[in-house]
Each structure stands twice: as structure tokens, then as C-alpha cells.
Amino acid sequence: MNEVQGPTPTGTSRPYRSLAEALRAHRINESNHEFIAAIMDAVGISSYIDRGRYIEAIRRGEGASLHIGRTYTNGFTEDELVVVGSRPQRLKPSEGRPPYFYVTHPSEFLPETPARAKRPSAPRTAAPRAAAAPRAPKPEERDYGVCDVCFMVKTPAGGCGCD
Fold this sequence. Notes:
Elements: E1 14-16, H1 19-25, H2 33-43, E2 45-50, E3 55-59, E4 66-68, E5 72-76, E6 83-84, E7 87-88, E8 92-93, E9 101-104
């Protein structure tokens, strides 16, 4: 059998039915789905395979397969032109897969959290305290006496521990 897929680090590889299924399975940020789909349409992909840490996209024609990670797509040649929309993408040399090049996904350029409104830069000062309400006086402690036999303090009812 001619098998185009090899083992992943866990020893299993499985093909995906579609790019959307592969992207969901790898939990790739949804803001990148349209961008990745545009690249795959331009290149021409025949199948998608789970490789554990990335999705392998097998090209229909000549050329190396593409590796789709969470933040990048790798496997382009230096002279290859990757155009998404009407804008050519900037290819960067791959450190882990020379002599190939990669593009960074758009989610890497978006701010991670929405910008919060800034507070005024004036130094903080403590607000003046309101006058505290007068406290009720503590109830007077009463002396109920001491037992002559056991020397314990008598209860309000007049008893003690020896009764």
C-alpha cells in the first residue's frame, strides 16, 4: 500500500476529511481559518493529515508538504509567492525545517486583550473620613460572687460547678 503518511510522535496518523475539521481538531485560532484556507486554495492541497503537533497538507503538484501549526504555516520555497487577498505574504526562513520558509498567521499580530481605558495619571489621595458613629457603651460587668466551697464564679442564677 502506498502510504503518504508517516507516524507522529505518538505513533498514530489520521487523515482529516477537510481543512475545517483539521483546524478545529488542532484548536487553531478562528481568526486564522480564513487566512489558512486562502493559502491552501492558492497552493492546491490534496489531503490533510494529523501529525501530532501540526497538520500536514499534501500538495497536489510538485513541492514539499506544508506544515500548519498554531501560529505559522511552513514549507514554502524561497521563490514561491504566497498571496492572500491581494497582498503578498512575507516569507521568513525556517529554523527547524531548512531550506523552507514560513508565514506567520494573523492572530500573532492582533493584541491579545482588548485595550482598557487608562485612568487619569493624577496621584491618588485618600478621601476624607467621615466621622465615626459613636459606639454604644459596653454593658457593665456584673459580679455574681464566688462560691465559698469551690471558689468558682457564680452564674447569674446564683449556682456554681459544685451544686
